[in-house]
Amino acid sequence: xxxxxxxxxxxxxxxxxxxxxxxxxxxxxxxxxxxxxxxxxxxxxxxxxxxxxxxxxxxxxxxxxxxxxxxxxxxxxxxxxxxxxxxxxxxxxxxxxxxxxxxxxxxxxxxxxxxxxxxxxxxxxxxxxxxxxxxxxxxxxxxxxxxxxxxxxxxxxxxxxxxxxxxxxxxxxxxxxxxxxxxxxxxxxxxxxxxxxxxxxxxxxxxxxxxxxxxxxxxxxxxxx
Length: 225
Known about the structure:
Distance between the termini: 46 Å
Number of helices: 5
CATH topology: Rossmann fold
Shape: globular
CATH class: Alpha Beta
Number of domains: 1
Structural class: alpha/beta
Largest sheet: 9 strands, mixed
Low-confidence stretches: 1-7, 56-71
Strand order of the largest sheet: 1-2-9-8-3-4-6-5-7
Helix content: 10-25%
Mean pLDDT: 85
């Protein structure tokens, strides 16, 4: 059994990352949202803890004898509180919440669920797809994309292409985007490439630093072309 390590609170000396339209901070998401007026953000795209006790990154197949996966630096035993969702809905006009199927008590019925079909075979021990609740009233949609073999810095890291697909379908140029659980920073890379203004935060200092460096490296690489 892998023991979860205590969540690493951010040091007050950590500087935010401000580059292009991105503003990334290391802080509690309730503190971040408290600074903004009602409906300031056009769209919140968030991937909070699902409350299912994840302690390693996904990807194991049946029969694997040795774990190669990262510990989950945090607490995945509970979903966000009702206060979090109230604040999220206050500061954003629309919301997309990954893992919303685990948080029904704090969400309203929606016809527009998103499904990320990872394209794995049935010999994996984890879910073959993930669901996201949305506040939109359009029809449900599916994204088919096997996760790439990119370097993983977070156990629930999602591909940048998934966020680009979401932006293509549910955002328009000029929209202000919010992410309250930055994690690996994939959404930041997608927003940078598509020139969206993103405000995001990550509570865990280790993940914040890794995501920050990943974003810096990506921006520097893009500037070469």
